[in-house]
C-alpha cells in the first residue's frame, strides 16, 4: 500500500494530548500477546530499525517500490502525527516494533489532509489506511488487529470511511480487507486495487471480530495447558515450601515433558538437576511456575523475559491480595509479561492442571488430581481449590483441565471459556466465581458457549460482597444483575459447592432430558413419595404412577422394573431409581443391575442410593483407563438433591432448545438525529432531560409519548385539554404524588372543561401547586414500568415489571443485560411473577405483548447506540389489547461510562 504523500510546506500541527486510552494489549492469532500504542516522535530510531528489518519484497508491497531507507523528511512525517486526521499505531513486542498501521486523512476532493491547525476549512471524513508487518511476525493476524484499532480511532475522530491502495499480488493484505466484514468496494487499474469501505461496525464485522478473538484467546490458553516443558522457579527440598509442593506434584503426576527445578543454592531438587536461573536451562521453557516471594518477582521476571518463557503461573501471594504496594507490583508484573508476549495465571494462584494422558500436567499445590474426564473447571479461590479437587476426585468426576487463577491479573474465566468452547476434550464447564473481571464479555462469551456446552456456576458473596482483599481483583455486581446475567446466558446457577457437583455429575455422564416427565422406580414407598414431592417442587411432572418393587425385590426384579419403564410405549423424559438397602442386604448387586438396565436408555437415569454418593464403582461404566465414562449412573444421598439436580438440568435443556433470537434494528430509528441531540446537551455531569428534550430523544427511536401539556392554572389546563383532545387525564408534577398506587395525584376520564377545572382544584389543594400535566387519555390497560438502570460493571441493564405497591414491595422486576435480542425481550416481559396478568389471567383479555416487546427492543437499541444515557424510565406504560402506550418518561444523560466489551479487541 502506498504511503500518503504530504506537501513540502507542512504547517505546524495543533498539539493534542497523547491518546493513552488507545493503548491495548491484544492476543495475536498464535496466542501470543502484542502491545498496541499510538506512535510518538520519540519512536523515530525504533521505526528506522523496524524498517531496516523488513525484507525487500515486504518494502516493495508496502511502498510500491524499493524504498530501502526512510528519508529524514518521511521519518518526521511518519512519527509526528496529530492523533486526529493523521493516526499511527505501533505493535510492540518488548522494545521492538513488529508492525505499523496508520491512516492519513483525505479531503472531499481526494487530496491529503494537512495537519490540524493549518487554517484549512476542508472537513476530513475519510482516510487512506495502510499497514506493514515485519516478516518474522507475519501470519499472526496483526493486520486485522491494526485495522480494527485504526477504524475505532477513526470513528472516535469523526471519520466514516477508509480507502486503500493495494498491489494485486499483495494477497495477504487483500485478504485482511476482504475478510474484515466490511462492505468493500473495489476498483482495479494497472495492477493496483483501490478499496473503499465505511468503518462503522456491521453485524458481519462484529462477528468476525468475536470469532478471531475467540480463536486467539483459545490458542493462548491452549499454550498454557499443553506445555512441552515446565520450569519451577523456587523449587525447594524443604517440604514446607510452595516450590517443593509444586515440583513434587509435577513429578508424581508423570508430566510427559521435561521438568526443570530452578534454585540457585542447589545442584538438584528431588533427584532432578537444578539450574541457578531460568536463563541457564539449555532448552526452551514453555511454562514457568513461580513460587518465590513477591519481593523477588522483578528478578524472576527479567530472567523469564530474557529466556522467552511463553506463560507464567504465579503461585506466590503478596500482590493485590495484600493491598498497598502489592497492587502496583502486580500491575507491573502483568505489564512486563504482556509486553514480551507472555500470559500470566495468578498471582496467588493454586495453579493449572491437565490430567489428559498425553500431558499429565499437575502444576498446582493439590497433591492429587481427579482422573481425566471431559469437565473443565475454573476456580478463583486458591484456598478452596484443593478441597474442590478432592471433592471432584471422591465423587468420580473426571476433569479435562483445571485453572485456579487467584487474583486474575491476566488470565481469567473469560479466557478459559473461550478455550473450552472449541476444546474437543471438554463437554461441560464448572465455575467458582467471587468477582467478575469483564461482565459484559462474560455475558457474551457464556451465552455462546452455553449453546453447545453447559456451564454450572457458583457465585459467592451473594449477600455480603467479596472479601476486602478481592475488591480490586474484579467487579462486584448487584445480585439482581448477576441473576439476569446467568439467566440470559444460559448459565446453570447453583448456591453451594455440593449443588455444583450434584449438577455436574448428571451433566457429565447422562444425556440432557427432552422434557419434564419423570418416572420413579424404587423399593421404598416412603422415599418414592419424597422423590415425587421433590419433582413437583422443581416444576417437573410425574410420568405415570411411581413403581414400588418392594423392599425384598431381588436385583433382577429391580432391573426389570427399570427396564420396563424405559422401554415402554409411554417412555418418560428421565428416570429416578430409588434403592434403600434392607437389613443385611448389600446394594452392590442392585447397583450393577441398575447400571446394566440403564445402558443405552437415551434419557437421563439417576439414582437415589442412600448409601452411595457420586459415581460408585458399581454404577460406573468403566473406560479403558478405569475412569467413569458416559452412561455411568450418578447417585445422590437424598431425594431432594437428586430432584434439584434434575430440575436444573431440565431448565437448561429447555433454554438451549429456545431460539437465540435476533438482534434487530427496529424500523423508524434515526440514530444520527439522536446523537446530534444528545451532543447539544453538552458533556457535563449527569443531568435529567426536560420533558420536551426527553420526548424528542425518544421519538428518534419510535418511542412516542401520549400527547401532553405542562401548564399552570385551571384556565390553561382547559385550553390544554382542548388541544390534546378529550377525554384527558390530569396529573400532578410531583412524582411523590403522581406515581402512588392509590392514584391520589391523578384524575382520569375527564370529558369536559368543568371536569378539568374540578380536578385541577382538587390537585392544587392536595399539592399546594397550580402546575399540572394535561394528557390525552390512553386506552385502559395494565400499568407497567420499563427502565434502564445503570450498573457499575455492565453499564446498563433493562428492567421490566408491573406497576403497583405490591410489585414494588416484593421487588417483582425482571432484568436483562444489554444488548437484548428478540427472544430476550419476549422472556423479559414474561419473567415477573405478576406477568400472567398480561396474558389472560382468570379470563381477562390478553394485552398486546408484541407491542411491549417492541418497546423493550427500541429502548435497548437506544441505550446501546447512545451510551450517554445513564438512566431511562417509561412509567407508566399502559399495556392493553390495543397496544402499549407510554404515558410518562424520564431520561438522564451524562458522560459515557466505561464499556469494557465494546470497540476493538483488547485484554482487560
TrEMBL record:
Residues 34-200 form the N-acetyltransferase domain. Signal peptide: none annotated. This is Acyl-CoA synthetase (NDP forming)/GNAT superfamily N-acetyltransferase. It comes from the Bacteria. PANTHER family: COA BINDING DOMAIN CONTAINING PROTEIN (PTHR42793), PEPTIDYL-LYSINE N-ACETYLTRANSFERASE PATZ (PTHR42793:SF1). InterPro entries: Acyl_CoA_acyltransferase (IPR016181), ATP-grasp (IPR011761), ATP_grasp_subdomain_1 (IPR013815), CoA-bd (IPR003781), GNAT_dom (IPR000182), NAD(P)-bd_dom_sf (IPR036291), Succ_CoA_lig_flav_dom (IPR032875), Succinyl-CoA_synth-like (IPR016102). Keywords: ATP-binding, Nucleotide-binding. Residues 695-902 form the ATP-grasp domain. Pfam families: Acetyltransf_1, ATP-grasp_5, CoA_binding_2, Succ_CoA_lig.
Amino acid at each position: 500500500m502506498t504511503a500518503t504523500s504530504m506537501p513540502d510546506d507542512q504547517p505546524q500541527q495543533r498539539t493534542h494530548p497523547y491518546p493513552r486510552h488507545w493503548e491495548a494489549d491484544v492476543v495475536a492469532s498464535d496466542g501470543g500477546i502484542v502491545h498496541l500504542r499510538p506512535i510518538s516522535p520519540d519512536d523515530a530510531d525504533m521505526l528506522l530499525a523496524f524498517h531496516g528489518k523488513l525484507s525487500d519484497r515486504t518494502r516493495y508491497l508496502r511502498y510500491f517500490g524499493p524504498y530501502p531507507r526512510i528519508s529524514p523528511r518521511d521519518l518526521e512525517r511518519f512519527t509526528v502525527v496529530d492523533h486526529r486526521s493523521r493516526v499511527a499505531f505501533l505493535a510492540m513486542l518488548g522494545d521492538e516494533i513488529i508492525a505499523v498501521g496508520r491512516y492519513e486523512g483525505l479531503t472531499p476532493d481526494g487530496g491529503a489532509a494537512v495537519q490540524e491547525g493549518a487554517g484549512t476549512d476542508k472537513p476530513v471524513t475519510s482516510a487512506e489506511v495502510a499497514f506493514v508487518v515485519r516478516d518474522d511476525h507475519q501470519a499472526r493476524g496483526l493486520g486485522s488487529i491494526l485495522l480494527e484499532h485504526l477504524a475505532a480511532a477513526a470513528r472516535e475522530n469523526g471519520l466514516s470511511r477508509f480507502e486503500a491502495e493495494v498491489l494485486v499480488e499483495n494477497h495477504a493484505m487483500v485478504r485482511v480487507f476482504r475478510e474484515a466484514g466490511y462492505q468493500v468496494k473495489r476498483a482495479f487499474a494497472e495492477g493496483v486495487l483501490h478499496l473503499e469501505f465505511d468503518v462503522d461496525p456491521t453485524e458481519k464485522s462484529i462477528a468476525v471480530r468475536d470469532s478471531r478473538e475467540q480463536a486467539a484467546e483459545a490458542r493462548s490458553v491452549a499454550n498454557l495447558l499443553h506445555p512441552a516443558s515446565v520450569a519451577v522457579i523456587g523449587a525447594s527440598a524443604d517440604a514446607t515450601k510452595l516450590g517443593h509442593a509444586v515440583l513434587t506434584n509435577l513429578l508424581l503426576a508423570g508430566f510427559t515433558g521435561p521438568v526443570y527445578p530452578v534454585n540457585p543454592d542447589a545442584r538438584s531438587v528431588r533427584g532432578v538437576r537444578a539450574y541457578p536461573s531460568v536463563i541457564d536451562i539449555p532448552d526452551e521453557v514453555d511454562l514457568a511456575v513461580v513460587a518465590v516471594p513477591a519481593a523477588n518477582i522483578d528478578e524472576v521476571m527479567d530472567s523469564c523475559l530474557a529466556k522467552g518463557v511463553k506463560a507464567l503461573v504465579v503461585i506466590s501471594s503478596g500482590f493485590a491480595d495484600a493491598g498497598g504496594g502489592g497492587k502496583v507490583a502486580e500491575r507491573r508484573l502483568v505489564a512486563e509479561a504482556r509486553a514480551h508476549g507472555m500470559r500470566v495465571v495468578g498471582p496467588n494462584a493454586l495453579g493449572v492442571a491437565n490430567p489428559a494422558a498425553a500431558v499429565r500436567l499437575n502444576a498446582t499445590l493439590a497433591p492429587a488430581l481427579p482422573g481425566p474426564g471431559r469437565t473443565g473447571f475454573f476456580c478463583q479461590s486458591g484456598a478452596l481449590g484443593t478441597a474442590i479437587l478432592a471433592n471432584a476426585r471422591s465423587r468420580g468426576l473426571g476433569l479435562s483441565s483445571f485453572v485456579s487463577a487467584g487474583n486474575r491479573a491476566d488470565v481469567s474465566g473469560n479466557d478459559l471459556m473461550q478455550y473450552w468452547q472449541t476444546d474437543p476434550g471438554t463437554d461441560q464447564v464448572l465455575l467458582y466465581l467471587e468477582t467478575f473481571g469483564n461482565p459484559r464479555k462474560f455475558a457474551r462469551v457464556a451465552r455462546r458457549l452455553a449453546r453447545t456446552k453447559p456451564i454450572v456456576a457458583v457465585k459467592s458473596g451473594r449477600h455480603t460482597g467479596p472479601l476486602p482483599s478481592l475488591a480490586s481483583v474484579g467487579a462486584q455486581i448487584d445480585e439482581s444483575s448477576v441473576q439476569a446475567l446467568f439467566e440470559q446466558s444460559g448459565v446453570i446457577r447453583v448456591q453451594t459447592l455440593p449443588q455444583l457437583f450434584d449438577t455436574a455429575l448428571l451433566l457429565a455422564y447422562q444425556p440432557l432430558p427432552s422434557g419434564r416427565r419423570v418416572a420413579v422406580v424404587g423399593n421404598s414407598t416412603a422415599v418414592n413419595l419424597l422423590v415425587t414431592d421433590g419433582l413437583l417442587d422443581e416444576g417437573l411432572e410425574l410420568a405415570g404412577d411411581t413403581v414400588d418393587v418392594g423392599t425384598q425385590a431381588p436385583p433382577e426384579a429391580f432391573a426389570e422394573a427399570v427396564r420396563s419403564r424405559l422401554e415402554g410405549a409411554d417412555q418418560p423424559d428421565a428416570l429416578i431409581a430409588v434403592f434403600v438397602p434392607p437389613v443385611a442386604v448389600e446394594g452392590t448387586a442392585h447397583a450393577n443391575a441398575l447400571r446394566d438396565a440403564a445402558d443405552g436408555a437415551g434419557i437421563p437415569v439417576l439414582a437415589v442410593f442412600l448409601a452411595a454418593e457420586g459415581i460408585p464403582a458399581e454404577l460406573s461404566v468403566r473406560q479403558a483407563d478405569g475412569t467413569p465414562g458416559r452412561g455411568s449412573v450418578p447417585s445422590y444421598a437424598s431425594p431432594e438433591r437428586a430432584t434439584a439436580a434434575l430440575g436444573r438440568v431440565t431448565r437448561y435443556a429447555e433454554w438451549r432448545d429456545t431460539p437465540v433470537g435476533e438482534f434487530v434494528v427496529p424500523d423508524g430509528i434515526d440514530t444520527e438525529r439522536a446523537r446530534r441531540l444528545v451532543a447539544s446537551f453538552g458533556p457535563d455531569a449527569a443531568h435529567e432531560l426536560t420533558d420536551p428534550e426527553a420526548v424528542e430523544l425518544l421519538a428518534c427511536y419510535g418511542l412516542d409519548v401520549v400527547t401532553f401539556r405542562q401548564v399552570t392554572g385551571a384556565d390553561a389546563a382547559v385550553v390544554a385539554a382542548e388541544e390534546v383532545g378529550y377525554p384527558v387525564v390530569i396529573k400532578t408534577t410531583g412524582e411523590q404524588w403522581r406515581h402512588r398506587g392509590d392514584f391520589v395525584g391523578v384524575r382520569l376520564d375527564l370529558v369536559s372543561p368543568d371536569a378539568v377545572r374540578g380536578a385541577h382544584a382538587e390537585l392544587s389543594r392536595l399539592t399546594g401547586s397550580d402546575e399540572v400535566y394535561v394528557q390525552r387519555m390512553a386506552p385502559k390497560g395494565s400499568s407497567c414500568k420499563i427502565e434502564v438502570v445503570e450498573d457499575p460493571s455492565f453499564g446498563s441493564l433493562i428492567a421490566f415489571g408491573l406497576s403497583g405497591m405490591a410489585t414494588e414491595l416484593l421487588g417483582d422486576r425482571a432484568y436483562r443485560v444489554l444488548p437484548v435480542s428478540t427472544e430476550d425481550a419476549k422472556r423479559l416481559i414474561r419473567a415477573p411473577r405478576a406477568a400472567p396478568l398480561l396474558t389472560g389471567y382468570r379470563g381477562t383479555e390478553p394485552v398486546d405483548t408484541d407491542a411491549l416487546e417492541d418497546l423493550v427492543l427500541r429502548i435497548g437499541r437506544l441505550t446501546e447506540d447512545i451510551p450517554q444515557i445513564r438512566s431511562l424510565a417509561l412509567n407508566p406504560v399502559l399495556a392493553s389489547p390495543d397496544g402499549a402506550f407510554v404515558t410518562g418518561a424520564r431520561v438522564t444523560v451524562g458522560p459515557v461510562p466505561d464499556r469494557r466489551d465494546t470497540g476493538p479487541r483488547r485484554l482487560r
